[in-house]
Structure formats: C-alpha cells, structure tokens
Amino acid sequence: MKKYRTNVSAPRTPFLWSLLLLWTLSAVNLSCETEDDTPPPSAYVAPEPEPVTEDCTFKIALPDISKGLDFECEGPEVSFFGEKDGSISLEFVENPDASGINTSERVAEYIQSEGVETWAGLFFDLADKIDFSEFQTIKMKVYAPAADLAVLVKLEDSSDGSINKEVQSKTTVANAWEELAFTFSPSDSDTYDRMVLFFDFSGDKAAPTTHYFDDIVMAEGGEIEEPGESGEPSTAPSAPTVAETEVISLFSDAYTDVLVDTWRTDWSDATLEEVSIADNPVKKYSELNFVGIETTSSPIDASAMTHFHVDIWTADAEGFHIKLVDFGADGAFGGGDDVEHELSFEGFAQEEWVGFDIPLSDFTGLATKEHIAQLIFVGAPSKQNTVFIDNVFFYNIDGVSDQPIGPAPEPSIPEANTIPIFSDSYTNVADTNFDPDWGQATEVSEMDIAGNAVLKYENLNYQGTQFAAPIDASAMTMLHIDYWTADSSQLNGYLISSGPSETAYAFEIVTGQWNSVDIPLSHFSSVVDLSDIIQLKFDGDGTVYLDNIYFYDPPATEPSVAAPDPSVPGADVISLFSAPYTDVPVDTWKTTWSVANLEEIDVDGNATKKYSDLNYVGVETVGNPIDASGMTHFHTDVWTADATEVRIKLVDFGADGAYDGGDDVEHEITISNPEQGTWVSLDLPLSDFTGLSTQAHIAQIIYAAQPAGSATVYIDNVYFHK
Q1: pLDDT digit string (tens) for 349-403?
Q2: What are the alphabetically sorted keywords of the record (predicted)?
C-alpha cells in the first residue's frame, strides 16, 4: 500500500493559567497551538520521500478549501494534540474501499491508539480564511469503524484560537464510506483559516481506532437567515423535597445557598444569563461548550453528603457532562492533591425539566470530597445548545422529606375543557365529600403546601370520594391526577358509577416527587357509565398526597374547519397561497435553511400548510420577487394549539434581487399570545413593517414561533392586498 506520512510535529507552549489547562483541554476549546502534550520544535519529523504516481508527485501544501481537499496529489501538514498516554498518526494511503460514493485512489488514514484523550485530534492551516458567502456547508467523506461516532469539525483563527466555531455530526454506518455535512453561516466568512478534526469525539478511547477521510469540500446549504434561538421552559422545575438540614445548596429558591465565587469562570466557553422562569430564578447557559462554577474561597465539604442534584431544561442539548473537582487540603488548584471525576449523560428528555440525582459514589475519581472547589458543566453538541439550570445542591439521602415541599405542577388545560374535582386552579364541583365513612383506616386531611391545598391520605388502605350529584363526564376523554408519595409501593384509582360499577387503574409508583398522570377515560368506559359517575376511590399503602383531580377533554391540536374565505376582490390581491385566487410562483415554502417540518394537508376540503416543530421557516420568491409597492396590507391566516408567539418577517432583496447585495431591507412583526384553537386572520398594514423601506422586490417571508422548535402552526390565505 502506498503511504505518505505527513509532518506531525507541533510546538509545546506552556499555559499561562493552570486552571485553564485542566478543563479547557478536556472540553476541547483550546487553540490547537497551545497543547501541552505535543513534541517540542526540536522533535521535527522529516517527511518520507515523496511517492510518484502515474499522474502526479504527492506533495505537502497549504490547502485551499474553496477548491476542495482530495489528497490525490497533495495534502496538508498536520499537527496532533491529546496523545496523553497514547499516540496518533496520519498517513495518505490507498483507499481501503474504492467503491460507492468514493472511488478515489488516495485518502487520509487517521489512527488513534488506546490511551489518548477523549478530545484528541488533529489540525492543519488553510491557505486563506474561509468564505461562506456562497456555500455554507463543509462536506467530508468518512469511513469509520462504527456507527454513531461523533465527528467534530472546529474552525479557528490560526492567530487566536479563542476565535472558533464547532459543528458536530455522527456516523451512521460502519466500515463504509458516507458523506457528513457540517453547516456554518454567511456570518462566519473571513474568520477562520485553521481546521481542527476530531474523530470519535468524547468517545471511549480504550482501544485503537482507524478512521479514513477524504474529499473535504464546500457545498450548498446553510443558514441564510439566523433568526430565533432554541426554546425555553414556561414553568419552573418541581421544588426539591429534601430537608434543608441535609442539604448544601449552591443555587435553589428552596434553600439558603452557600457562597459561590462565580457561576461562569473567565476560562468558560458559554454565555450566562440570569433569567426568571415562572417567577423562579434560573441560570441560562447558551452556546454552551463548557462552563466552570467555582467555590474556591469557601470550598464545599460534601463528605457527609450522598448525592449531587441538578435540574436542567434544554431543547437542543444531546449530551450533558458534570465534573466535580476537589482541590485537596491545600485548597489550591494543581497543588498535587487535586482529584476530580466527570460523568456523561445522553438520551435524556428535551423540552421538559429533567432532574439528575447522582450518587457521589458514581464520581469514582473523586477520592476526597472535603474541598470541592469546582463544578463544570459541558453541553453537546459543543456551542450549539442552550441549557437552563436550577436547584444545584448536594444532599444526604437520609434527609429526603416524607412530604412534598413544593406544589404540584399548575394545570394548563383551559377551564372550559375541564370538570374539576379538586384543584386550586379551577372552580371545583360543589359539595364533594372527600372523606365519607366507608369503614376505612385511612386518615384524610387537607393541608397547605407552599400556598396550595393538597389532599393527604395517611396510612392508606382505601379511601372514597362521594359527589353530591352524579357527574356526566361523557364529553370528556381524560382523567388527570397529581400524586406524591415517599413510601407507597402500590396505588390504584377507581371510577364508580351507579350499580355500583367500578374499574381500577394501577399507578406506576415514583417516590419523592410530584407525578402527573393522565388516564384515558376509555380505560374505564367498558364497565363504568361515564355519564353517571357517583364516586372516586383509591386504595394502596403508605401515605399519599393528591392534587389537581379533574376530568378534561384536551383542546384540539389541529383545525377541523378551513380558514375563512377571503373577501378582497382578486384584482386587488397578489396571492402566494389561497384557493379563491390565482397564486404567483413561489420558489419554495420551506427553504433548506429552515428549522421546521412542512406538510401539505387538507383541512375540510381546503389546501393548508402545516409547519410542525417550528422554530423558523423561510418562504422564497427569489425567482420572481413580489412587487408589493402598490399594496397596503399583508394577510395570512394562522391556526395553532400551542404557539405562544408568532413572528412574521418580510425581506426585500432590493433592485439587484440578491440576498445580502447591499440593498436588502426587512422587518419582523411579533404577534404575542395568539388565540389558540381557532383560525386567526392577520391583516397587517405594510406601513407597520417600518424597516421595509422598499417593497418592490420582496423575496422572503419568514414565519417563526415560540416555543421554538416545538410549536405547530397551520397557514392559509397568504397574500398582499390593497
């Protein structure tokens, strides 16, 4: 096999800050010129003689990425980092599988031995800074040993490694060529002239691996517009239930916090905002690569604690790492007695609060816990995620409360869609007896939890609820119950109609937190007459707290009737999408840079656009820009069951008809809290688009929504009119 080994030396430059060394290397945000494990300049390795092929003599050269890198006749001079106890090599070799999408003769072979860092990789300089104005995607063919391995492309300014951007992709096949895409944006142009590659990024480096890569090229696709950001929570996390005497809290409304020097060290790579979610203080880390939290001046003695807890909410993080660092008895970083351990989490739920209760015994490298001075959070994909943080504390499991400290989640179903039995959020049915004498051993009481009424069933064997009059729930579809228990091992709920006729529902028991359960009434309807419910019953054991008991029918999630027919005369309309009119050409109703799903559906016999998982979507008429200079209004009908905000942007590309040609103008209008569950006709005066100083070459309409990435919006009757 023909091979060419590139020069792999790199200078050794000591770090100015030892603290920055420890973490920045582990999070891979250090300029590749400052790696401490690369050989000194004197360790230069001379290249092997240049092999001659039939067509060319292979040589080392600064690559011009605009022309692509195919490694047939030349390759870059590369440097490695993160060898640690292992080794890294790169050679240009014969294609191991010249078939399918890659039949080229020569490719790059990258080998990592066991013992390298999880962030080990290579870098090489480029001939010029990359221009993303025309093409925003870098594509690379990869031949990997396994599927689901992370491949990270990081671009840097070679003179200042702190100026960088990272994009991650994952392999989908093993031992076969595939093409991975890494999307950047026009705003990244003329910034980066160094490429850093990581194969099996953050993976298990316990065994040697070989990756091949080839054909690094610029391609179409990318982010023409960059509106919006990932979503955010609308509710606060559940209040902690551990007794305060058994807690060391860094950040939680439920406790008194200890002193924290900083929630974002100067060596962090993330943006921190102090925000309020449902009147609850929360830390928001956006563009999160890694962030350090320090208690150096007052190290935490967690030797009597058993667990570490944190609540996180994210719409886009696929991985989350937590590192604890103990500085030792000397209280100094790098003093010789430091210990640390990092845990990684994947597969957690998105767009809801997730609580991590981690035994400190899982931090196996944390041999001492008396002087914890650093907590480090890492998000993945790097710098492409936003994470909200709350309730950060250490605790002793013996202090877990035997009753809820905070209230159950507040219901979100409109009262018109409910029959409330017991809830502070609604007007409950009258004169219900929550403790009829059925000979039970259960002790029933009503107590206050954080200003919220809760039913307490102590020493539960069985317990009934008697309605003053039968309840007709035949128009409802669900029964909702919130429960909390510290010690119950079984809990069943029953609906009872005249006869009596009853059927049980077995709850899945989760202790120490409020659990929201939504039970389809179809579970009971084969036995129970839903139009004649006279009683509820629970049986089980232990002590159980109940709240928010109600029947409901969820609001519609999609329209059942078409949008209203427009009444504007056709002669006064420029229609993009409306059945009563003749539509002008539209290039696309979902550009490649959109973040949404589009379906063409029929609603009550009328064609409708459905955008789900909507962050933002672009509609383009670049091929035939719209001259709306004679129009006065922009009209669109929208229907949503969940969007709390809808934004509409109009973009005029100017006389040159080109995006970013220097004469573009645009304006966005926000519709807050649009009415849900019904068609809303938006007839917006063009004069309200104050930034749209010209209207003769409109080439883009952009719809956006909140919560970003999870809203569903239906669109019809899109037109300009006068």
Answers
A1: 999 999 999 999 999 999 999 999 999 999 998 888 999 999 999 998 766 668 8
A2: Signal
Q: What whole-number distance in Å separates Cα of residue 412 and Cα of residue 410?
A: 7
Q: In whole angstroms, what is the distance from residue 712 CA to residue 439 CA? A: 51
Query: With 0-12 CB in 10 A as exposed, 13-18 as middle and 19+ as buried, what is 276?
Result: exposed
pLDDT tens digits for 183-241? 887 878 888 999 999 999 878 888 999 999 999 999 876 543 343 345 789 889 988 87
576, 583 contact by CB (below 8 A):
yes
The DSSP H or E segment spanning 21 is: helix 18-27
What is d(CA 632, CA 535) in angstroms, rounded to the nearest whole number?
Answer: 60
Residue 138 and residue 135: Cα distance in Å, rounded? 8
CATH number at residue 608: 2.60.120.430
List the Cα angle 683/686/689 in 5-degree steps. 110
3-class DSSP assignment, residue 26: helix
Instruction: Report pLDDT for 443.
Output: 96
Q: Identify the burial level of 242 via C-beta atoms within 10 angstroms of its C-beta, where 0-12 means exposed, 13-18 middle and 19 or more buried.
A: buried
Q: What is the 3-state secondary structure (H, E, C) of 621-656?
A: CCCCCECCCCCCEEEEEEEECCCCEEEEEEEECCCC
Binned at pLDDT 50, 70 and 90, residue 525 comes out as very high
The verdict on residue 143 lying in a domain is yes
Contacts of residue 695, Cβ cutoff 8 Å, sequence gap at least 6:
627, 628, 629, 631, 650, 652, 686
